[in-house]
Amino acid sequence: LSGRAVELIPGDSGACALHGAMAFKMREFQKAAKSFDCILQAKTDDPDAWAGWVRATIAAGEPGKAQERLQSALDRSPKDARLNYWFGVVLLRQVLPKKAQMAFQDAVALSPADVAAPLALAQMALDAGDSKRATALVDKIPSTTSTSDTTSIAVMRARIAWSNRLVDEADNQLRLALAADPTSIDALVLQIQTLCASRKPDLARPFLETALAEDPKNADVVDAQGQTYAASGNLQAAAGRFEQAIAYEPNRAEYYLHLGRAALAQGSFDKATKAAESAAELKPDSAEMRILQAQVLRVKRPREAEMVLIESLKLHPEIAELQDELGLT
Q1: C-alpha angle with apex 176: 248 to 212, nearest 5 degrees?
Q2: Global pTM value
């Protein structure tokens, strides 16, 4: 129906936006990108159209195309905060974290009230094991009445709390997020992950059902389904879900991390090795990725595994899991 609306009213931004959103949800990413591009041809500064086009173009496997177009747009409008933010998103997908960080910082400087860029910087800090910096970045975000912003901030605070093993605080923040938006995929997925990590897969299932009903082809939801299987002991089904998530989004290190853990638990060392290598390549500074790599290496090359952990501990001396793996605690 939305496609028919575009045919009947060519160039109408509302029809194109609706068609783009529907096509994206159906994973028809090239159609989605084309619809959002239709809006940008008439309104080059439309922030929602830029967001839709960038997300669809990345999902279609063309981050280089997105990077080139955004660079051209920034050459014309270097002080556009949203363009800087989306440029950072694309650079991050291109595994260029330092350049991405600079783009996010530019976005924050240009529009301090916008929450997307500081949250992206907070996530980068958290990925690097620096929860204090992540907390400081979130604390600096101005108060907001936006439901989506409130949800996003609560989810980030829950991630930070979980990384610090503050389970009750993480649960409280997730309750706030889901109270603001009961269908938030980010909040639902994180709730599933925390419950599975606490070995409570039965409690995670209602949240999984909601997420699957909302967006069954979302890669994060598919990955969360795999984590539910893994927590229930069904490692083969879990591996299948992780592989499907990777097929949807092949540049997400977390999916390889989860696949590697499941494969290692099954004794599939070749698959675990490949997954660990991919995870470490996508996030070379991540302690989680390095721990998995060391766990796989330990099977056949224990000395090399120890060196991986020692090098990672130099970067993240505060992370208890690294100390545990090295037998320092």
Answers
A1: 30
A2: 0.83
